[in-house]
Amino acid sequence: MLVDMKKMGKCFDPAQIEESGQCFRFVRREKPLLNENEDIKATYTTISGGRFLEIGDLGDGRFEFSCSEDEFRDFWHDYLDLDTDYEAIKERIDPADSFLTAACRYGCGIRILRQDLWEMMISFIISQRKSIPAIRSAIESLCSAYGKPITVKNETFYAFPAPEALADLTVDDLKPHGVGYRDKYILRLAREVRDGMVVPEDYRRYSAEKAVSELTKLYGVGVKVANCISLFGLHNIDAFPEDVWIKRVISEEYGGYFDKDRYRGCAGVIQQYMFFYGKSREYAHRGP
Q1: Prediction pTM value
Q2: CB count, 10 Å around CB of 130?
Q3: Where do the CATH 3.30.310.260 domains begin and end in the chain?
Q4: In whole angstroms, what is the distance from residue 228 CA to residue 126 CA?
Q5: Distances in Å between the alpha carbon of 225 and those of 44, 195, 199, 240, 269?
Q6: CATH for 117-232, among 2.60.15.10, 3.40.50.720, 3.40.50.450, 1.10.340.30?
Q7: Of 57, 111, 127, 267, which one's alpha carbon is 20 to 30 angstroms from that of 27?
């Protein structure tokens, strides 16, 4: 189906979403698998909730989605967070803040996807001290080994493994998948979820601050990972993960202190703009 994001008044750029560090299974393909429109400039695929989606970017604000109108309305519209008013968030940015103004302009097509909570819990446990390519590789390896297959034309993709699929594994089973020392964290959480000791959906009952506090009680989950899970898994868009890029920006641009309270209720969106621009070549090589 064809969706005109420009006519809908929605800023949406799958290239920026792919590179924003929030989703490790939203990837660019060399060529379309399902879409046959010859005007497509770039193609992306994503898998969520056991569903496969291909997005063809026509380069003019229009996108070809490889799903029916019903599936788009019932699932992917929410996944892409198309109901959140990002324009209103951008209007809150202090015009005197030259860095954040530039960051917002640079990453204006980012939307914070509404991803599967269990997947985000494991994904960001894996993410500790890893580059994005290494995280993607480890997650795809786990999915290929333990996820349910999804066949699309002549290719096979895999859903994210359920807790039950990981709970009975051993550390040795996980060694080939590049998760490193995080293996014990993954196995512990999978077993606790399977056995009902941890119920991921329970975290939705908490405020953003309380959710982070509760998530840090999980084995192997620190403050940064808890904030990532809160932002990208619970869609608490006030969560503000601070990785090395964010810390660098705060140090270099804000003298070591950034007032997150000014953006209360949407600080996580601001964090995405800061992260995406802060790690960009344009920012790194900008002039004086």
Answers
A1: 0.94
A2: 16
A3: 2-83
A4: 12
A5: 26, 23, 18, 10, 17
A6: 1.10.340.30
A7: 267
